[in-house]
Specification:
39% strand, 5 domains, five-stranded antiparallel sheet, 2 helices, 2% helix, single chain, four-stranded antiparallel sheet
């Protein structure tokens, strides 16, 4: 609310706001422009810094060391210019004055025409039918996407298309006939299938006539194109998305306590400085609310200062004065729902999806997300990525992601491959040897065609089932495993002047290595481990990765991988 104060400034007035301190009692207390409360008996709010009652430059901002703003009541401050006043006010009697939330409805304003200068976007005439509702049984409207003369509506449980600036009129035989009319939002036509976007509009991405989005409630990832809605999560990833989407919690509460302290201990000190043990203050605290003794302090952290401090990792400057004692409990809390962030990679023609247990501003952990891509060319999910973005988008054939306040360009020529946000992540691929899956065999060797720098992290045969450990209540999964295979460079060693290779050897640009069995004895086995050559099994799961020394960050291609087997009769 506004208030006019009798002060010594010519034609000026002050502004202030009031609140009830979060108590809900309705007892309004003034809160001056800097947010400090003014209570009865406090010093005058006109006690500026530098007055006799203040201690300027003491490093501790008091409750009334603030910057005041004076507004002129006359335009341009002229002596006889027009004076600011309440003026003419619109008046209307409403029979129902209560607020209504219609989360399944749309409303549109007047027209905007840049050529003629008409701008009626602030006009919502109650004399006209300017609202359009969809079925409330399908949940709230989460996303609107306009294209040409139609608009796609994404509800929690349904996807529909609505005609814009035209209506569908049906003949007596029931055949639709398109015609123009004065209808702005026309007929609503629902797509087949009980699919929606749940409560994750951030998963939406579009390229050409194809639209991608997630439906967390049904555990699927969807594509909307001219042939309708397709579950692209079924392409080899049905189980994965069913489990991953169900694990995302929409009511995650990230909170932690900050002990009250002084210059020697962590906590709240110097009126509005908080020293914390955190290496990423800007990411972790923005959007979190400060609580005092289990009650909100009335503000959300939005002003942060990162800087080294002796004995501490960083410090934050909060934007409101708060008084605490040694018996008070001060902590931060943020409700950070899980995010399903989607975007289209125009460079590789992929739909990129990041499943995050908490968004980047709430949690900076590196193990609470999965980022992967869907490729239309193979009609499948092609790769996982080791980065956790805040947003994804493409512009002029360049794919960008946003991490916190920074924008990153992907596929740049001057950046190491598999490096994201300044950190090198490496690359790996896991596949299965499954030829003649119904026949017992021994995998003796492994080979590949491609660039130097690949290594085998694991080579595990298919298991024989779970058996009970002797003398234990625990069950174990029995399978044969091999020793890891080093890359061509890392496996080199010299003995008596002769160069040997403990990992991959190279011949005519093909790399090959023997498999050394490191399995433990299984029930009934007499010969096992290094006493036998290779590993036994019907199939084997193999994980290849790039090493950490051979042309780090350079291009490493993998054309084909093979193995030599002996069949067990």
């Amino acid at each position: 609310m506004a208030a006019t104060l009798e002060i010594s400034y010519f034609n000026s007035f002050w502004m202030k706001t009031v609140n009830d301190g979060g108590t809900g009692s309705g007892d309004a207390a003034p809160v001056w422009p800097n947010g400090y409360p003014y209570n009865a008996g406090d010093p005058s709010p006109f006690d500026f810094p530098g007055d006799a009652t203040d201690q300027p430059n003491d490093g501790i901002p008091g409750p009334f060391e603030i910057n005041w703003f004076i507004e002129e009541s006359r335009i341009r401050g002229g002596y006889n210019n027009t004076q600011v006043d309440l003026g003419v006010r619109a008046y209307i009697v409403e029979d129902i004055t209560s607020q209504q939330t219609r989360n399944n409805s749309m409303i549109y304003s007047g027209i905007y025409n840049s050529r003629t200068g008409i701008n009626n976007t602030n006009q919502f005439s109650v004399a006209e039918d300017i609202t359009k509702s969809v079925d409330p049984a399908n949940g709230s409207i989460q996303k609107l996407f306009a294209e040409n003369t139609n608009m796609t509506i994404f509800q929690e449980k349904k996807v529909s298309s609505i005609l814009v600036d035209k209506d569908a009129i049906y003949t007596a035989e029931g055949s639709p006939m398109q015609t123009t009319s004065n209808v702005v939002l026309g007929q609503v036509q629902s797509y087949l299938g009980e699919y929606g976007i749940s409560r994750n509009p951030e998963s939406f991405a579009v390229y050409g006539y194809q639209k991608y989005f997630s439906d967390k409630d049904r555990g699927v990832i969807l594509r909307l194109s001219r042939d309708g809605i397709t579950e692209i999560s079924n392409y080899g990833m049905l189980d994965y998305f069913r489990d991953a989407l169900s694990d995302l919690n929409e009511e995650n509460v990230w909170s932690f306590s900050i002990p009250v302290g002084n210059a020697e201990t962590p906590g709240l000190i110097a009126s509005n400085i908080i020293r914390v043990f955190s290496t990423d203050v800007s990411s972790l605290f923005v959007g979190m609310q400060l609580f005092k003794n289990n009650r909100p302090s009335g503000f959300i952290v939005d002003v942060n200062t990162e800087g080294p401090f002796i004995g501490y990792n960083a410090e934050i400057t909060i934007n409101r004065y708060i008084t605490v004692t040694s018996s008070d409990e001060v902590f931060f809390r943020s409700i950070a729902p899980a995010k399903i962030i989607g975007g289209y990679d125009i460079h590789n023609k992929n739909y990129v999806l990041s499943l995050q247990e908490a968004p980047t501003y709430a949690n900076v952990l590196d193990n609470d997300y999965q980022t992967l891509a869907f490729d239309e060319l193979i009609n499948g999910w092609s790769s996982f990525f080791s980065y956790k973005p805040t947003q994804l988008f493409s512009l002029r054939n360049v794919f960008y992601t946003i991490k916190d306040e920074s924008i990153w360009s992907h596929y740049s020529e001057n950046v190491d491959r598999t490096s994201f946000y300044g950190s090198y992540g490496g690359a790996n691929i896991t596949f299965v040897f499954n030829q003649d899956s119904g026949v017992n065999k021994v995998f003796k060797t492994v080979n590949y065609e491609g660039d130097n720098g690949w290594q085998v992290d694991s080579f595990i045969s298919g298991g024989t089932g779970k058996d009970l450990n002797p003398g234990s209540v625990n069950w174990r999964f029995l399978s044969d495993i091999t020793q890891s295979v080093e890359s061509y460079n890392e496996g080199q060693y010299v003995e008596n002047g002769i160069k040997y290779y403990s990992g991959f050897n190279r011949k005519e640009n093909k790399y090959y290595a023997n498999l050394i069995n490191t399995s433990s004895a299984k029930p009934g086995e007499v010969v096992f481990g290094e006493k036998i050559s290779g590993i036994k099994g019907r199939f084997a799961t193999v994980k290849f990765s790039v090493d950490t020394t051979t042309d780090l960050g350079g291009l490493k291609e993998l054309w084909s991988v093979g193995t030599k087997v002996n069949y067990i009769k």
